[in-house]
Amino acid sequence: MINMKRTLMRCAWLALLAADASAQSSMASPGPSLPPALRTPSALPPASGQALRNEAMQKLKRRFEEADLDANGSLSREEAQRAGLGFVVRSFDEIDSAKRGKVSFDDVKKYMQQRRK
User: Which of 31, 37, 74, 114 could form a disulfide with 102 if both were Cys (CB 3.0 to 4.6 A apart)?
Assistant: First the structure.
């Protein structure tokens, strides 16, 4: 009986520690589920227009460079797929107009500009 109580106490203690750690980690990186009253607004206004396009292009370039596993400046269809660049994978044949089997970031950028027109 005493061992059972000890085991139950240990389980309760571990559960409390886990709950406390979980609460601390969720507050360190609050997500979209954080109530509006607890959110801290950004000091900067949200990007829009050309600034938003530039920001998005920089993020895409970073993702492109991370996906370029052999660092040759271009992505194969497989590299793009492995990196989760669905847009590039779905449009690969149109982006790769020279039919080289790989696309550079400039190819992707040019394709996006053509689509926007």
Answer: 74
Q: The CATH number of the domain where 68 resides is what?
A: 1.10.238.10
Ordered alpha helix ranges (H), the chain: 2-28, 49-67, 77-82, 86-90, 92-95, 105-116
Residue 76 domain boundaries? 49-116
76-108 burial, b at 16+ Cβ within 10 Å, e below that, comes to bbebbeebebeebbebbeebbeeeeebbbbebb
Assigned domain for 103 exists? yes
Q: Is 85 part of any domain?
A: yes
Is 0.85 surpassed by the pTM of this model?
no
In whole angstroms, give the CA distance from residue 108 to residue 1: 69
